[in-house]
Each structure stands twice: as structure tokens, then as C-alpha cells.
Amino acid sequence: MQKFAISRPRRFAAIAVAAVLAPLAGTNCLAAEPVWDEIKPAIFGERTIYLGNPANIMLTTPYRSSDDREVPVEVSAKFSDGRTVRSVTVVIDENPMPVSAVFRFDDARSAVAVAANMRFNGPSPIRAIVETGDGKLYMSEAYVKTSGLGACASPPVSNPTEAFASMGQMTLKHSVAADQSSRNITQLTQTAQLKIKHPNLTGLQMDQITLQYIPARYISIIEVQQGEERVMTIESGIALSEDPQIRFDYRLNGSGTISVYVKDTDGTEFRQEFPAGTGS
Question: What are phi and psi of 227, to 5 degrees?
């Protein structure tokens, strides 16, 4: 997994609030914003990023977060011209680690939907960059106002002893997200809600008793498989909330099991299997 823990001068934080997204004259790509101008080359190099059409990419976030520690972020992407979706990258400009999650899809899918609860360290633009099967990049952007909690440094909510004792425990629940009248069960699209017990420590949090910083330990990789077929891989950073909740869709392929593999930055691995489909 490639890390994108980009260090930026603090002066960018104030400038970014006033930055405005606008198309470059004579092109379909996005104009640079002060913070994004520094982040983008580290992630995508000199590749062109085009404005996403709402019919193709939808980024859904609250206008103002009710809890900066777990802000719901949802991305859906669909291309009617036959192109598939390779990946979805979520970037929160003003977070200490701007690349918050990268969802990668192995199979050729013309439509995907993913969601996760994420930490926002402060008010920030958030971006969803979708890579299509032909290698092009498209971006949708929103802006989230926050309470000033500074969620990346906010102390963990759970009791440390209990958090480490339950670390790695998972639940997976399903609902059908397609026409129930389909006679071919393998064509039904499922929506799955995955919950993982993990404190997702950022390294910026302080122990309220010892007043020492708590070492970072967060989930870095999540892999979901349906039988022998990999549904998706998630590369994540400190933005995933404590005890993260992740929602994703997939098509049944006839296999009876969904297996989830999780690895954190301490090298600890967790695995669990669930029944595939609505019966789980």
C-alpha cells in the first residue's frame, strides 16, 4: 500500500476555506486550489482530472457534521457508455493524511456504491476521484463544515482495555438493492454494511491520564471476497472513524460466503466469514 501522509504548511488551512473550484479555460479539467494543488501531484502526478457529471459520479456528505469523529461519506459512480470503474479515491484536503480511503475493484463493474464514516480534522473540501477502465479520472467535490472538534486528535471514545479486547470483531448485514423480480439470483445487487471493531488510533491523540501521545495503530487494508472472487480492496488511513462502518454493493456470483480480511498498521490480521446475500 502506498502511503500519502503529506506534510503541508499550516498557512494552507486558512487559504483553502476561500478556495473556489472552477474549470480551467479551454479544458474539462479542474483548476488548482491552494491545498489541492500540493496534494494532487503526490497522488496522481500530472494526470488530468475531469469534472464529474452528477449523472456519473455522486458524492454525498452532510453540509455540516453533527460529529466530526464519524461523518458519513457516500460515493456512487455509474457510466452508461460501457466503461467500468477501477477505483474510487476519497481525499479530505485539510486532514493530516488527506488520502482517506482508496476503494479498488477487481471485476469489471459499470456501477459501484461505497460509503464510510470518516474523521474530519476541521472544515474541508472533500473529493471523490473515480478512475474508469480506460484510465481516465473524474472528480466530484463537496465542502463539509465542522464543529472544530479536531477529530484526528480527539481522544478515543471507547475504554482502551475493552477496545483492544474486542479488536477485529466484525458484523455484516445485507439488503437487496435491485429488482427482486429478477429470475437470475446472480444478477441481484446486494448492499452490505460492514462494521469492524478497531480504535483506529491516529497517533495525534493524547492519553488523558498520562498526557502522552497514544501510538498510531489504524486499519490499513480491508479485502472483501465472495468465494474466490475479490469484490474490492480498501486502502485506508487515519480518517476512518473509530470502529469504522463501511457500506458497499456487489453482485451475487453463486458463492455462499463473503470473507473479510483486515490488516492494521501493527501488522495484526483479522479474518471472518459470513453468508453471502440477504440471509446473512
Answer: 65, -125
Q: What does the pLDDT look like over 127-150, one tens digit per residue?
A: 999 999 999 999 999 999 998 878
Q: What's the CATH number of domain 155-280, 3.40.50.620, 3.90.1170.50, 2.60.40.10, 3.60.150.10?
A: 2.60.40.10
pLDDT for residue 177: 52
Q: How confident is the model at residue 208, as a pLDDT?
A: 83
C-alpha cell at 139: 472528480
Average pLDDT over residues 173-200: 72
Give me the residues paired with residue 232 across strands.
224
Residue 22's pLDDT band (cuts 50, 70, 90): very low
Q: What is the pTM of this model?
A: 0.85
**Which has the closest alpha carbon to 228: 197, 257, 186?**
257
CA atoms within 13 A on the CB side of 169: 7
